[in-house]
Amino acid sequence: MEFWIWILVICATSMWVYWDATANKIGKIEGEGGLFNMSAGAWAAVTLGLWIVGFPAYLINRSRLIEKAKEHPQESIFKKGGIAILAFFALGLIYITTPGFAGAVPRCNSGDVVVLTERLIADIPAFQELDTSVSIHTHFEVSYDEAADVRRCSAFIRIGSDDERVFFEISWYNKMAGEIWVEFTE
């Protein structure tokens, strides 16, 4: 399953947990301890933040929580507001974790670009045959074409103790998958 589909599932199930908990009047019961004595918002937050633990825990304990809620009903004053807040956080989670939602191509000195240029340099046969170290450093942006979403960058290749300036471009190879294309130019 695609990564972004998992993110949507996590967000949808956390909103369902909040809706279900408030509809069944599940909430934190004052004076009672326990790991599962949480408000509807806390259940939703745990589901959103730690889905692999939070969602199964809610489902496993749901019938017991509903029974307790019949004895000690908890009204949520933020039912609609809580869903809106969860939706806001869910959209934020989708935005920061799904590369296609991220917008512009990564910057010249971003971690992914630095690692990729280091790999490209290491794979050049002429550099592999040298008896000295070869590295790339000091990545910086020369220009950015917003319409084409292409960054023109520069860096220095260190061969032994000498630095040679190189230029490269970054563009999307597959934006929705977050895959970039780095090509060295003149």
How would you characterize this protein structure?
The chain has 186 residues and is α+β, with helices and mostly antiparallel strands. It has two domains: 3-97, no CATH class; 111-185. It is 47% helix and 23% strand. The chain has six helices and four strands. It has helices spanning 3-23, 40-49, 51-71, 79-97, 111-122, 125-128; strands spanning 134-145, 150-159, 162-174, 179-185. Strands 1-2-3-4 form a four-stranded antiparallel beta sheet, with helices on one face. A hairpin with a 4-residue loop joins strand 1 (134-145) and strand 2. Helix 1 (3-23) runs antiparallel to helix 2, helix 1 packs antiparallel against helix 4 (79-97) and helix 2 (40-49) runs antiparallel to helix 3 (51-71). The mean pLDDT is 84.
What is the domain total for the residues? 2
Largest sheet: 4 strands, antiparallel
Pairing-aware structural class of the strands and helices?
alpha+beta
Mean pLDDT: 84
Helix share of residues? 40-55%
Number of strands: 4
Strands of the largest sheet, in order across it? 1-2-3-4
Strand content: 15-25%
Topology:
Blueprint: H1 3-23, H2 40-49, H3 51-71, H4 79-97, H5 111-122, H6 125-128, E1 134-145, E2 150-159, E3 162-174, E4 179-185
Antiparallel strand pairs: 1-2, 2-3, 3-4
Helix pairs in contact: 1-2, 1-3, 1-4, 2-3
State the main characteristics.
6 helices; alpha+beta; elongated; 23% strand; 4 strands; 186 residues; 47% helix; 4-stranded antiparallel sheet
Summed up, what is this model?
This protein has 6 helices and 4 strands, in the order ααααααββββ.
